[in-house]
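Let's do one together. I've listed all components of the complex below, 225 residues spread over two lines.
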Amino acid sequence: GESVGLHLPTLSVQEGDNSIINCAYSNSASDYFIWYKQESGKGPQFIIDIRSNMDKRQGQRVTVLLNKTVKHLSLQIAATQPGDSAVYFCAENYNQGGKLIFGQGTELSVKP
Amino acid sequence: ETGVTQSPTHLIKTRGQQVTLRCSSQSGHNTVSWYQQALGQGPQFIFQYYREEENGRGNFPPRFSGLQFPNYSSELNVNALELDDSALYLCASRRLDVGETQYFGPGTRLLVL
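Okay, and this is what the predicted structure of the assembly comes out as:
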């Protein structure tokens, strides 16, 4: 069935280190990908997105890499801070439809 | 904050009852989508509304229905509640003609006993 999967369910890093969260998607026709951050008791918060005609996009302290050959997406967080602790979801979208397909999520824990 | 609000924040119902959840979209957003998020899982798409009509639906039975109003606010209705309907219900809004980015509200936590 449809799925966007994450390789690691949990990730623990030291404050100041870089974090990398990985994601595999299944629909080769997907053309838009988003990373969301969800803190406990809150809704998903948009972090960064990327279209399928790009392979890298940078934001403030975050970078998303897209490898369409192997249907892989990653989120890199530079200088991880305790406030980055949350569950991170990747999601895929096709042809501007409203249906986002989410994975299970990776819980990022940042140790001070 | 995304500007998307939902009410109520928490709700407890019993099996067989009906529930209505509400969402107020971000200003200028004409499209709203609803998602169900079970504990420990990613959100699952229920349906999307644009111009007050449903224009996309996920794998949810007809007892999940919705409405979108002229001011773009929205309701999710669930009839004949089942225990498995216990979840966090999220709405997300966007401008269909601008791009795909969906902005989520804080969700309504529904518990069915």
